[in-house]
Structures are given as structure tokens and as C-alpha cells.
Design goal:
CATH topology of the largest domain: F1FO ATP Synthase
Number of strands: 0
CATH architecture of the largest domain: Up-down Bundle
Helix content: over 70%
CATH class of the largest domain: Mainly Alpha
Length: about 110
């Protein structure tokens, strides 16, 4: 499958899940309760959020490392000046994934 097809399929799945979540939220709000549906939505939301954060973090870290290694290969004398900013960038990317992980844990605690 080409990349365009995979991306369009992924986008359509995300849109369908988002529409279903909104529809279920309206249904439970009208009923005045919704304990089971709320729990289901929190579990699915935290799982999808964590998966997307891990995917984005992995892609970002791969691009950062690739760009840094290409720069070092072109100019080996600049390796010392590139290393520290690269590590800081990787740490910031990883911190976003860890924040998402913490939020997912808090959402699972509400179930």
C-alpha cells in the first residue's frame, strides 16, 4: 500500500472514532448518567492518545537523530557543537510522550 492510502485510512479511522465519541457523549448527557460509556470512552481515549504520542515521539526522535548524524557526517568538526542541542531536543521530545503517559494513567484512574 502506498503511503497516501495508509494515511487516508488512518485519518478516516480517527475521524470515525471521534464522531462516535461525540455521539456517545450526547447520548449519555441526555440520559443523565453514563457510567459505563464514560469509562469506555476514557479507556479508549487514553489508549489512542498514548499510541499517537508514542508514534509521534518515535518519528520525531528518528528525524532528529538522522539530521544530526547527516550534519556530523558532512562536518565532523561540528560534532561537539551538535551533540548537546541534539540531546536536549531528544529529551524534550521524550518529555511530551511521558506527559501523555502520565495523563493516560490519570484517565485510567478515573475508571
Amino acid at each position: 500500500m502506498t503511503r497516501k492510502i495508509v494515511l487516508s485510512l488512518l485519518l478516516s479511522v480517527i475521524v470515525c472514532l471521534g464522531i462516535a465519541a461525540v455521539a456517545m457523549a450526547e447520548e449519555t448527557a441526555a440520559a443523565g448518567g453514563g457510567g459505563e460509556w464514560k469509562d469506555w470512552g476514557l479507556a479508549i481515549g487514553s489508549g489512542i492518545g498514548l499510541a499517537l504520542a508514542a508514534l509521534g515521539g518515535a518519528l520525531g526522535q528518528g528525524r532528529v537523530a538522522s539530521a544530526a548524524l547527516e550534519g556530523i557526517a558532512r562536518n565532523p568538526g561540528a560534532a561537539d557543537r551538535m551533540f548537546v542541542p541534539m540531546i536536549i531536543g531528544l529529551a524534550l521530545i521524550e518529555s511530551l510522550v511521558l506527559y501523555t503517559f502520565i495523563i493516560a494513567i490519570f484517565l485510567q484512574g478515573k475508571i
